[in-house]
Amino acid sequence: MKVLVVSPGLAERIRERLPEDVEVLSPVTGTDDELIGLAEDAEVIVATRLSPEVALAAPRLKLLQKTGAGVDDMPFDALREETWMTNTSGSNPGPLAEGAVALVFALAKKVIQRHGSFMEGRGVGRGVLLSGRKVGIVGFGSIGREVGRMLQCMGMRVLAVKRRRDDELAEAMGLDFLGTPDDLMHVMSESDFVVVTTPLTPDTRGMIGEEELRVMKPTAYIVNVARAALIQEEPLYRALSEGRIAGAALDVWWTPHFWDPLWNPEGKQASEYPFWELPNVICTPHNIVSSDSRSDAGLKIMVENILRVKRGEPPVNQVDKRLRY
Question: Which of 135, 184, 186, 307 is the most buried (most CB within 10 A)?
Fold first, then answer.
């Protein structure tokens, strides 16, 4: 059995956990031409992102394993019906939840502005007391629930949106409100902070646009640690530059993998609009999840799925290829 792991570093970690009769392949340069050659005999591909051309070059492919949770950059249309797609969703929500909460704190206390004005003696205005404020969490999966739990510890009241109603979850967590996407406008209008953690799918792409931003309080902030395309780019920039909302923290960008010359050979900027020049915006390059504590939870899912495919069993953490999450 051959397994193609697109990241050489991850390939070593996976290889040492598999039996000797599983051959783990990894690229040197990572170009599509190289990956196409390696994919010809692969039954499993493990990747953070993959082009349709590579998927189409793998006629024996049984499993495409995503290294993280978001699968919007996976080639759904290039996969055969019998090919499974899986991710590591729910394996370790803590680091990203902590990152989202850190951005909430940084906005509330104007940390970046205070740092920038320190030697200039400029005033930046008062911060926001979080206790008693409302946070709206758009996407209440494992990460969203962890964000809610952490912010409840600060005395914040939690409103949330998830795909389906779950009254038992709302009661168990002591939420102020838990609705469906039909209730998005209500949550946006009531919240002092909005934290976006929902997956990017055809249904959620652009779900926050001009109308949703206009119902936000002028004192409200928005934090996006999920995918940039969930929020419409131009309306968000205008709302921030015109001061119609108080600010934003963005760890995700509209040019996917803008830092990677393999996926962005033209060197496009992270956005068509210079969010990073606005004084009320915090920009981080999609790495707020990074921490000094490496979890093997996601790795265990990847290894388990490879072994399951080897035994002819269905994998865990299957992605619904119709719903695309």
Answer: 135
Closest residue by Cα to residue 105 from 161, 162, 147, 159: 147
CATH topology match: 2-90+295-311 vs 94-283: yes
**CA nearest 12: which of 315, 223, 299, 305?**
299
CB 157, CB 135: distance < 8 Å: yes
Residue 278 φ/ψ, nearest 5 degrees: -80, 135
Contact 305, 299 (CB under 8 A): no
**Amino acid code (one letter) for 28:** V
Please work out, in degrees rounded to the nearest 5, the angle formed at the alpha carbon of residue 96 by the alpha carbons of 90 and 97: 85
Residues 307, 276 contacting (CB under 8 angstroms): no
Give how far Cα 49 sits from Cα of 64, 119, 121, 175, Å: 10, 43, 46, 35
Among 3.60.150.10, 3.40.640.10, 3.40.50.720, 3.40.50.10750, what is the CATH number of 2-90+295-311?
A: 3.40.50.720
**Distances, alpha carbon 207 to alpha carbons 34, 45, 139, 267, 318, in Å:** 37, 31, 12, 27, 24
Please state the domain extents for the chain: 2-90+295-311, 94-283
Which residues have C-beta within 8 Å of that of residue 256, sequence separation ≥ 6? 49, 73, 263, 264
- Residue 128: count other Cβ atoms within 10 Å of its Cβ: 17
> How far, rounded to the nearest angstrom, does the alpha carbon of residue 111 sit from its chain's CA centroid?
24
- Per-residue pLDDT of 44-101, as tens digits, reads 999 999 999 999 999 999 999 999 899 999 999 999 999 999 999 888 899 999 999 9
pLDDT, tens only, 243-284: 999 999 999 999 988 999 988 999 999 999 999 999 999 999
Taking the alpha carbons at both ends of the chain, their separation in whole angstroms is 27
Q: Which of 156, 152, 194, 187 is nearest to 172 (CA)?
A: 152
For domain 94-283, the CATH architecture is 3-Layer(aba) Sandwich (3.40)
Let me know: does 136 contact 187? Beta carbons within 8 Å.
yes
